[in-house]
Design a protein that fits this description.
about 0% strand
Length: about 90
């Protein structure tokens, strides 16, 4: 009986682990993340020594997030529809 329960629990854990690997991608949410970053970076005072570095981080985030949607035309469109931010 213990072997059956142990095997069943292992199967359930393995199934949950596999299903979590297939995360769906939300192009609009990824683009919003970039917009939020850009808004925050651009909101820093022009003389803030960290402003340029923060803007660079947002540019890198945009590249990384684009790579996540690239090849999925539906999510590419959802991503692109968010730009320019706030419109």
């Amino acid at each position: 009986m213990k072997k059956i329960i142990g095997t069943g629990l292992t199967f359930v854990a393995f199934t949950l682990m596999i299903s979590s690997c297939g995360e769906s991608i939300d192009g609009a949410a990824l683009a919003q993340e970039v917009c939020d970053c850009t808004t925050a970076a651009n909101g820093l005072p022009a003389d803030d020594p960290n402003r340029s570095a923060e803007q660079d981080k947002c540019g890198e985030l945009q590249r990384v997030n684009w790579d996540k949607v690239s090849g999925d035309t539906e999510q590419e469109s959802a991503f692109n529809d968010q730009f320019p931010c706030g419109f």
